[in-house]
Amino acid sequence: MNGSRIAATLAVVITVLFTPIWFAVVSGPDWGSTATAVGTALVVAAALALPTFMVLGHGPRRLDRAAVAGDTMLGATWVLFTWSILGLVARAILEAFDVSNAGRFVGIAVPLISAALLVYGFIAAMRVPRVVNQDVVIDRLDPDLDGLRIVAITDTHYGPINRSRWSEKVVDLVNSLEADLVFHVGDLADGTPDTRFQQTRPLVEVKARLGRAYVTGNHEYFSEAQEWLDYMANIGWSSLHNAHIVVGQGDGKLVVAGIDDFTAQGSGLPGHGANLAAALEGADPSLPVVLLAHQPKQVFSAAEAGVDLQIAGHTHGGQIWPFRYLVRLDQPAVNGLQRFGKTQLYTSRGTGFWGPPFRVFAPSEVTVLTLRTPHQNG
Fold first, then answer.
1. What is the C-alpha separation between 174 and 367, in angstroms, rounded?
2. CA distance 287 to 268
3. Is the full-model pTM beyond 0.90?
């Protein structure tokens, strides 16, 4: 896509986002000519500032302060857009019943509701995630592995906002769960290992009785995926770049496989691209397989290969409502445990957040998956 087409697409997106906000909050309420002119100028300024900050923050210059400003504006704009649409529908209904001052009611309610949700969403994004417990029955699981505890984190997205202290608290939480296995299922950081070292440093302290493993997400392919694989390997994690490890206790064994993100092939990075056959090469076909694959839609190839359980992230549970419904157009699941034939898929809402520092009706999580045999759950 050339520069002019990108600019045209961006202009359309900005227009679509800000037009309902202008109608619901500025134009519709009939505040008077002066107030309307000032409000219009503010909306236009915001519409110009948003793409400017996003390009400066996420383009070639990668200015963290600009990224924080742009991401925050993007989240606020999405919330205002959503509630402006709902407000315009409400205004039409109120006016149909001849309710006076319907426009002003909506013009006040939309920014107030949006502000409240943004405060709530910021607090939800910045807090240590809740623990979500889920039992998963694996038909082929050896009884010696019944009760095996997997702790999964994903989508930490260490980035422009320095969350070093948050990272330490998440590691403390993970360690308190006394995991047998700990997995990071991609989108570790936005940036390079050097620029995000302070935030990722606590990961070296993660404790797991049988092992720790990591796979890439799509965001690693924006910024040095191979370097992140090398970094995680250097701090003692198994970087599963289309590879597997075998773990076990007693007579029970489990294959833990990991594949590159769905987007890796298109990144142009040599040697990268999801390859489940390579990941399982040499594995005992009689053993149960837990697959780490960042995107839920990778479950279809997992099901064809007879994988028992895929653990995914990527969706953030939508992160800011009602974005989850758009995510569902691209992914077969948004969160929780689903079954695809004999393969089960667990999709985490993610441990951190991407971009906008808000989570609205999509709480973050650290997931504890307890593997069970059919007998123990019968």
1. 9
2. 34
3. yes
